Amino acid sequence: MQVDLGNVLDTASAHGVSREALDRLDGRVAAAHDRIERGREAGEHGYESLNLPNSTDPAAIRDAVSRFDDPSAVVTVGIGGSALGAATLTDALESDVDAYYLDNVDPEAVERLLDSLDLASTVVNVVSRSGTTAETLANFLVVREAMADAGVDWADRTFVTTGEEGNLRDLADQHDLPSLPVPDGVPGRFSVLSTVGLAAAALCGHDIEAVLEGAAAQEARLSDSLFDSPAYAYGAVSYALAERGLRQNAMMPYAESLETFSEWFAQLWAESLGKDGLGQTPLRALGATDQHSQLQLYRAGPRDKLVTLVRATEREDVAIPETDLDGLAYLGGSSLGELLDAEFEATEASLAAAGCPNVRIELDRVDEYGLGELLYAMEAACVLYGELASVDTFIQPAVEWGKRAARGLLGGGDFEEAEAVEEKSRLVVE
Ligand SMILES: O=P(O)(O)OC[C@H]1O[C@H](O)[C@H](O)[C@@H](O)[C@@H]1O
């Protein structure tokens, strides 16, 4: 995996991130790296996540899911960090086992999914770090009942990943469900390389060892200089640009298989860095599709965006048939992959020509190893950015507010946040 900052330097006159500015920033990267390494060594909350390439035991995960022989589908019931990491992996990789995610509690979507599945051959993978998240537990109760109604022994088809306490742990103990623990010190959005993200991938038959190997390769590249570490290069430059007013970061992979990766990245970047009036709003885009939609704004709208372009350099390809249609001869004989690459490079150059900084991230392939590299690098980039910005990367108090309010409204406790919802002023226009 490599990160090319060339276009950031090409657009430096507009945004001041010159080579000299990066050299000055590098001293701060060294201090931040030192802090991160100390946190990792002490197993501090959050920093522990960067130890997962070595601390996760893939054999234990395989062993725990091995009792589910040849499922037709895996439904992961979880939300946020308990779903997006697993979904990034299973959506990117091919498998004979269909992977679905019940994160939202949209009743129509839940019903549609349950109606479409053969529940007798489906594995339900319930994931919640806290074991108390209302959406996850509600969805699980609905799935459990649907299985019972279909005459399926739900306890025989359910797998749980959760912490040592909480409603989900109680339920797993009560019914003797097979389960895996969530490692300590790993917030949900940093948990893809743990039991949380890898159990679904293992159930789908993916090579989870290779995911961890890719992550370990990026871990080995962490160093006290941004010029030696792709992860730190990305984190430091994103921070420097945000400081100079580029408060939005459009994640734009040129691979359909990486579309869910942008969702995962959005949670990582938003929940970790959006604090104290700081942060960089993640935007989700897909190349080449969004060239024909959002690119107009990125190039000519407010100058507040970094665009992150991601692609794989090796992939399966499809030839474009020769044609004698007027004006289309240029397409014939080339391939869809070549067209996509041309679009990628054209977008990159077009943004740079307009003074819009963009970073290029290249993987060899979208496979288990490449995904491990990418996911670990983005996590390390995020931790570095948090250090440079002096925010507490590993908490999410603003999210907790809404969770308490929703619980209070449903009668699940006496929360002052629920009163605030009831008292809010309304201006209704009909
Ligand atoms: O894994 P859980 O405890 O169910 O939490 C699921 C999600 O809940 C909250 O919304 C947090 O802000 C997320 O960071 C977390 O990933």
TrEMBL record:
Any single GO molecular-function term of the entry would be: glucose-6-phosphate isomerase activity
Q: Which SUPFAM superfamilies match?
A: SIS domain
Q: Any keyword Cytoplasm?
A: yes
Q: Enumerate the Gene Ontology biological process terms.
A: gluconeogenesis; glucose 6-phosphate metabolic process; glycolytic process
Keywords, comma-separated and alphabetical: Cytoplasm, Gluconeogenesis, Glycolysis, Isomerase
Top-rank taxon, per record: Archaea
Write down the chemical reaction(s) this protein catalyses: alpha-D-glucose 6-phosphate = beta-D-fructose 6-phosphate
- Describe the function of this protein: Catalyzes the reversible isomerization of glucose-6-phosphate to fructose-6-phosphate.
Q: What is this protein called?
A: Probable glucose-6-phosphate isomerase
What is the source species?
Haloferax denitrificans ATCC 35960
Quote the gene name from the UniProt entry.
Answer: pgi
